[in-house]
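User: Before I run my own analysis I want an independent prediction to cross-check against. Here's the chain; please return only the structure tokens and, at the end, one sentence I can use as a sanity check.
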Amino acid sequence: MTDKKLKILIVDDNVQMRTLLRITFTRQTNYQLIEAENGVDGLRMVKEERPDIVVTDVMMPCDLNALDLCRQIKSSEYKSCYVVLLSEKGQQEDIDRGM
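Assistant: Structure tokens:
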């Protein structure tokens, strides 16, 4: 029986945040981490790498922000992928948009 590592894609334009998340996740050995610095690269990596979980910052400047990335994932053949949205925003409207 093989131990399948959970594949996690971190999508964030902030290199310090990606580093912090990488350090946090690598404390556990059952994760395989991949990274993208924007939504466009993140979507490409979802298609190529087929991660189990995508952890993404909501506030990313790019042609494809995190909410659009989430919508595209959830409306595609990759919809079984879990998406975790990270945000400094906490207003109910922001939470509703994320849901």
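Sanity check: The beta strands are 6-11, 31-36, 53-57, 82-86.
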